[in-house]
Write a structure and sequence with these properties.
128 residues
Length: 128
């Protein structure tokens, strides 16, 4: 069964290379970008049927979501270029993983299990 996130194509053992780690990060950004687009489309559809009262607030929210989508797209492009800049310098995977709060994100970015013992140590809960 194919993994829709794209993680099936990446190595899952040992300390991941910089390229693998950055590719996983890019996949997360791309998914967030797609999620923002879905939210933006849904809000746009709601605005079509909403009476004009209160529209400035909704329009502002739509602009905020659009800005988030553009930022995520730019960050994904940035990660693509960062990959070649870090070839000679190893990323500190444990430090990077320890900075993450969401256990599910940590598991997707660092699936080798090396960092799972710190997952949710401060009580964060992944709801989805």
């Amino acid at each position: 069964m194919d993994d829709p996130t794209g993680f099936d194509d990446l190595a899952r053992v040992g300390d991941p290379s910089n390229a693998t780690t950055l590719q996983r990060f890019k996949i997360e950004l791309d998914q967030l970008n797609a999620d923002c687009h879905v939210i933006q489309d849904g809000l746009s559809d709601l605005l079509v049927v909403t009476p004009p009262v209160g529209l400035p607030t909704e329009m502002h929210l739509l602009q905020v979501i659009d800005r988030m989508e553009q930022t995520l797209c730019d960050l994904a492009a940035f990660i693509d270029r960062l990959d070649s800049s870090t070839e000679e310098h190893a990323l500190q995977h444990k430090d990077l993983a320890d900075a993450l709060k969401l256990a599910s994100l940590k598991a997707r970015l660092f699936p080798s299990g090396q960092t799972h013992n710190n997952a949710n140590k401060s009580g964060e809960v992944d709801l989805f």
